[in-house]
Design a protein that fits this description.
The protein has helices at 11-28, 49-58, 73-76, 129-141, 156-166, 212-221, 264-275, and strands at 2-6, 8-9, 33-37, 62-64, 85-86, 100-105, 108-116, 147-152, 172-176, 186-187, 193-195, 200-203, 234-243, 249-258. The protein has a single domain (2-275), classed as Metallo-dependent phosphatases (Purple Acid Phosphatase, chain A, domain 2, 4-Layer Sandwich). By secondary structure, it is α/β, with parallel strands linked by helices. 48% of the residues are buried.
């Protein structure tokens, strides 16, 4: 089983980079299942319903989110109807949506779960991912040996600790949220592939995919502003994982694909496509 994980799409530039990189991705990294983190796809924070449908139509089997999963009202109100969108599994039971699901991948099945870290998130409060980890992975492995966890967390220490807690219990744990690709990908002794952060898809010359001038001004003024997309040097980042029939990882490879700058008419076509998604 070959799984492609596309790192967090940030803003319109992230959606554009994902679309433009697909032909090269298909040629260089043929996948059986594609996961895309879309927690910042709409305006740099959150995921709107139209963006979710559009990214799914482009080819993503599953869209994962994180602490921004309920930032967009139209997704929150419809997330129960979108089985391809996952919010964190360790939220309270009353939270709408699904935190883990089993999906078809040809003749096989792939299980995907999202967990949210507890350090540094003020607007969305989660339960301990460690307390539920064993039961969650055991339940998913009863249905398929191919189990992928997206751990959306701020602290690298929390990520590393969960990696070792999950080792031997799932195929891979992929870190997300910090939007900076790390170089620590490896396969642990129990056969679980891990990386602290798969990176981001969007502008490379930016601060987390956002316009650099606006980020500098925030530090000068103290007024947050995450509304300005950056477009310089668009790039897709992520990881490519090869998993054996027993569910243990055989390899994990970091991906970086540069795409050409977006002409204005193409971004206009993307906006038109979104309105009909």
């Amino acid at each position: 089983m070959k799984v492609l994980y596309v790192a967090e799409l940030v803003g319109k530039a992230g959606v554009y980079a994902f679309k433009k990189a697909l032909p090269e991705l298909k040629q260089r990294y043929p996948w059986d299942f594609l996961i895309a983190c879309a927690d910042g796809a709409t305006g740099g924070n959150g995921l709107g319903r139209n963006h979710a449908a559009y990214i799914h139509k482009l080819g993503a089997n599953v869209l994962t989110t994180g602490e921004c999963c309920y930032y967009k009202k139209d997704l929150t109100e419809n997330i129960e109807k979108l089985p391809y969108v996952l919010r964190p599994d360790n939220l309270n039971p009353e939270a709408p949506g699904f935190g883990s699901r089993v999906y078809k991948a040809g003749t096989e099945k792939v299980a995907v779960a999202v967990l949210l870290g507890q350090n540094g998130f003020g607007r969305l409060h989660s339960n301990s991912p460690f307390a539920m980890l064993a039961a969650l992975l055991e339940r998913l492995r009863r249905e398929t040996p191919y189990v992928i966890v997206d751990f959306h967390a701020q602290a690298s220490a929390e990520k590393k600790t969960l990696f070792f807690a999950a080792d031997g219990r799932c195929s891979a744990v992929i870190g997300s949220h910090t939007r900076v690709q790390t170089a620590d990908e490896c396969i642990l002794s129990g056969g679980t592939a891990v990386i602290s952060d798969a990176g981001r898809t969007g502008s490379r010359e930016s601060v987390g995919g956002c316009d650099t001038a606006s980020r500098i001004q925030e530090y000068l003024s103290g007024i947050p502003d995450w509304t300005r997309d950056a477009w310089d040097q668009p790039e897709l980042q992520g990881v490519y994982i090869d998993i054996g029939a027993d569910g243990t990882a055989r390899s994990i490879q970091r991906i970086r694909i540069e795409v050409p700058a977006a002409p204005q008419q193409e971004t206009a076509r993307d906006e038109e496509a979104l309105t009909s998604a």
